[in-house]
Amino acid sequence: MTEVIRIQEGVLADNDRAAEDLRLRFRESGTCVVNLMSGPGAGKTTLLERTAEALQGRLRLGVAVGDIQTSRDADRIARHGVPVVQINTGDACHLDARMVTPAADHLLPLGLDLLIVENVGNLVCPAEFEIGEDAKVVMLSVTEGADKPAKYPLMFHVSRLMLVSKVDLLPHVDFSMEAAIADARALNPDLQVIALSARTGEGLDPWIDWLLGLRDKARGR
Length: 221
Ligand SMILES: Nc1nc2c(ncn2[C@@H]2O[C@H](COP(=O)(O)OP(=O)(O)O)[C@@H](O)[C@H]2O)c(=O)[nH]1
Ligand SMILES: [Mg+2]
Fold this sequence. Notes:
The chain is built from eight helices and seven strands, in the order αβαβαβαββααβαβα.
């Protein structure tokens, strides 16, 4: 048992070192980095498509997408004219700093203002692995149920912002916004919240403003 715990600690310590290298590189290149996490299908890629459209001509955005297989998400985002790298993790259920490094090698020379990393769809493992980001963002769709913050606490504890997605579906589902936010803030009192719909565009402006604010803060690092 003890041996297993040591292995896990070793993996995380190795990752922290690689993440620190990445953090320095992001800082040197003046790139603000967001780690976007959620369960599968919450709407990350769809939001990134809308985000690419909204930021066009305002700042230089790049995206790295982690998936176990396929380049489908990267293909969707690339259609919106932003540089994208797809990272296939094989069997890993999260991105770690070593997996993000080749994507950084490819994207940082392009001189990006903002890099958004769409993590592998999973509410558990991605929360454990630093990738040198400026901020972690968790997305929870209203179709997943308001109990998820309490059931997957680390994800909500480590994130700076919670996006509650697919709010256009609220009339059709049994989702309590108050309960989801209360449970998430019990884990993380400073957690910011934006409710949005990539379908109707509701909440997109606050999301874009949040990204621009983060980017401005990162400039002053
Ligand atoms: N109704 C509704 N559906 C959405 C919204 N955003 C995404 N979807 C749908 O949810 C599914 C999963 O979206 P996707 O962006 O691939 O999720 P990801 O796995 O988190 O990247 C797709 O069928 C999308 O069309 C939204 O705001 N409202
Ligand atoms: Mg996706």
